[in-house]
Amino acid sequence: MEKEKKIRVLFVCLGNICRSPLAEAVFRQLVKERGLEAYIEVDSAGTGAWHVGEPPDRRMRVTAERHGVSMEGMVARQISPSDLETADYILVMDKDNLHDVLYHDREGKWGYKVRLFREFDPHPGSYQVPDPYYGGPEGFEEVYRIVRRTAEAFLEHLIEKHQLPARVKS
Length: 170
Ligand code: 4NP
Description:
Elements (H helix, E strand, L loop, with lengths): L6 E7 L5 H15 L6 E7 L11 H9 L14 H6 L2 E4 L2 H9 L10 E3 L20 H25 L9
Parallel strand pairs: 1-2, 1-3, 3-4
The chain binds 4-nitrophenyl phosphate (4NP).
């Protein structure tokens, strides 16, 4: 595929401070490990505006760091209608997010891009990434495990579907 036209992946949750920024950070790291940055662009956003401008939740950052994933410098933002136009894959964490993202698709043009992230999970369970915000530390660890294996499977899907090199040597 052409290098100029990057595949744009947007992860979405409610606040953009726990699940979707973790998915962005983990997936970006996987893309970098494969040397595929020239092919894939990664971003995240929240459906709600409460935490816009804030860094990721400290509990999520600590969990990510424990697993060698940095969330340094990330800032929460809210999804906008233009995201539906520009992204190629809009991967949402739960069914509320699915509903809320589709609300922005007023003309019904972009719905085909919006999918539950856990459709790519080899063990999809409920197909939703549980919201860890009001729970204890084990919830953040569970989110990490789900996000990690699903991000790995999604990258394999992209490589196959778009015929990307499995690994680019630097
Ligand atoms: P996230 O988690 O959607 O994974 O970022 C949440 C963050 C904040 C809130 C809920 C969930 N909140 O109610 O403020």
